[in-house]
Amino acid sequence: MAINSRKVGIVGCGFVGSATAFALMQSGLFSEIVMLDADTAKAEGEALDISHGVPFSKPCDIYAGDYDDIADSSIIVVTAGAAQKPGETRLDLIKKNVGIFKSIIPEIAKRNFKGILLIVANPVDILTYAAKQLSGLPDNRVFGSGTVLDSARLRFNLSEHLGVDPRSIHAFIIGEHGDSEFAAWSSANVSGVEISRFCEMRGYFHDHDAAKDNIAEEVKNAAYDIISKKRATYYGVAMATKRICEAIIRDEKSILPVSSIQHGRFGINDVALSIPVIVGKDGIESEIPFALNNEEITKLRDSAKTLEEVIKSCDLELDDE
Q1: Would you say residue 182 has pLDDT above 90?
Q2: Has residue 157 got a pLDDT over 70?
Q3: Share in percent of the chain as helix, strand, coil (round to 5)
Q4: Which of 18, 62, 150, 218 is the most buried (most CB within 10 A)?
Q5: Ramachandran assignment for 287, one of left (phi > 0), alpha (psi -120 to 50 degrees), beta (any other)
Q6: What is the Cα–Cα distance from 296 to 203, expressed in whole angstroms?
Q7: Residue partners of 79: CB distance under 8 A and separation at least 6
Q8: How far apart are CA 119 and CA 258, in angstroms?
Q9: What is the mean pLDDT of residues 244-272?
């Protein structure tokens, strides 16, 4: 079956899936959006509600469907999974959501899916690894939203601190999308100006390290803060997902910190986590020579170990059941 480059499938119509469908409808990237959920009526209701906004946007056919309907999609976005509750870490979700993926991913794979599988459900790194194992698709075509949103949060917080456009800030959160993530400060800059130097230019002459630590901690805890206030996060991740889809559909060759299976970078193997890569029409097109200092390499390896231990506890390496 040939890929329809203007078609996207969204599996899971909760807060994240519905917000993603809404963001993609407004983007004009796709002319067809298919929504799929275990609760068919929920998918139908969300599709109908979003469809009513089409007259204010660009032509797009939005409807509820099944796995056959999404088989020729250029991208399938998987948001299905149990919601993260207040006080619950992303890794607490693992057992429930891996089980859900064992019913979803094989259904996609057995239809000889030729497009890109974009995982957005949490814990995204574990579920990206699970999706790769369960689908058998090439690594470049199975990846997660990773720390794309975390990196946007970092840029936003830095922009507030420095009084500069966040689009001029180049900084990444890498590693796990979760508690072991960290900011790669050694490569962070504002349009080529090193962060500490830019801070001094803005009148911050002391405690650069303390300020950076505070900002990174705020980013790491942002989701917990939002969940405690409104029970779920969905607008930010919907925009992050839209950004990744843009890079793919427009073949932008954008550098994004998506979650992907590692094969030896920084001594890390057989685990999915986020390090910036080039994203285009074929998915992950290539790695980049992303530089880290020794402290950051240690943090990245520690983050990988955290994820490796979870993978072992889930028996995801076997996946023959």
Answers
A1: yes
A2: yes
A3: 50, 20, 30
A4: 150
A5: beta
A6: 27
A7: 10, 11, 12, 14, 16, 17, 20, 120, 121
A8: 10
A9: 97
Taking residues 19-27, report their average pLDDT.
Answer: 98
- DSSP label of 260: E
Q: Give the pairing of strands 182-183 and 173-174.
A: antiparallel
Residue 112, judged by CB atoms within 10 A of its CB (0-12, 13-18, 19+), counts as exposed
Catalytic residue, from 52, 161, 177, 208: name it: 177
Active site annotation includes 177: yes
Counts of helices then strands in the chain (DSSP H, E): 11, 16
Domains of the chain by start residue, with CATH: 4-144 (3.40.50.720), 148-314 (3.90.110.10)
Residue recorded with tokens 């910036």 = 276
* Phi, psi values for residue 86, rounded to 5°: -55, 135
Beta strand 142-144 pairing with 116-119: parallel
Per the omega criterion (within 30 degrees of 0), is the bond before 138 cis?
Answer: no
